[in-house]
Amino acid sequence: MSIVIPAPVTAPQIIQVAEQHRRLVFFGTPAFAVPSLRKLHASGWDIAAVITAPDKPVGRKKILTHSPMHTVALELNIPVLTPQKLRDESFRSALAAYNPTACIVVAYGKIIPDEALKIPHLGFINVHPSLLPAYRGPSPIQTAILDGCASTGVSIMKLDALMDHGPILATTSWQIP
Fold first, then answer.
1. Which one, of 20, 38, 176, lies nearest residue 102 by Cα?
2. Checking DSSP bridges between strand 124-128 and strand 168-175, what pairing results, if any?
3. What is the DSSP string of 106-133?
4. Which of 118, 125, 141, 169 could bridge across to 11 with cysteines, CB 3.0–4.6 Å?
5. CA dihedral sign of residues 13, 122, 114, 76
């Protein structure tokens, strides 16, 4: 299937094309990402696959344990990929085979390589828990609280090859209690 996307792409155009084709691949790892996956799934989006971190040893007995995202994906009967390296050709081939309209990233924990960013028709959309450009990086919520911020928010952005960088498509803010 070929999807025609005008350039430059605006947020309403991304939403319009995505809603017509509705095929997503979701990247996430911790419990923080679970509500986003559940909401997309409940809203009828075709989640072709979930990409999450590989199982990790947990506890004194070092029992290999799924990430929270992996566990929920299995519960929702969504295929799961746990690549060690995103630069591997086998991973890129697997991602391309899903033919995603877009990839959604929520707290995945790894930088997506440029070769993978080019695979989905609409690119990668990242949900970042801060009002960018403030608080880029791995702990934006904690840092905003430690800095005594009165408010924070969420930024929805299109990913590019840099960390927490790319055009911001939407933001919402709220007061920190």
1. 20
2. unpaired
3. ES--SPPPHHHHTSSTT-EEEEESS-TT
4. 169
5. positive
In Å, how far are 31, 68, 75 from 35, measured between CA atoms? 8, 11, 14
User: What count of other Cβ atoms lies within 10 Å of the Cβ of residue 111?
Assistant: 14
DSSP class of residue 10 equals: P
Question: Minimal CA–CA distance to 166: which of 120, 129, 123?
Answer: 123
Is the pLDDT score of 29 beyond 90? Answer: yes
In the DSSP assignment, the letter for residue 23 is: E
- Decide: 120 and 99 in contact? Cβ < 8 Å: no
pLDDT band at residue 10, thresholds of 50, 70 and 90? Answer: low
In the chain the domains, ranked by start, together with CATH numbers, are 11-175 (3.40.50.170)
Residue 5 pLDDT level (bands cut at 50, 70, 90): very low
Q: Is 37 helix (H, G, I), strand (E, B) or coil?
A: helix
Sign of CA dihedral 27, 42, 34, 61: negative
Query: What is the rounded CA–CA span in Å between residue 125 and residue 141?
Result: 19
To the nearest 5 percent, what fractions of the chain are helix, strand and coil? 30, 25, 45
Mean pLDDT of 63-75: 96
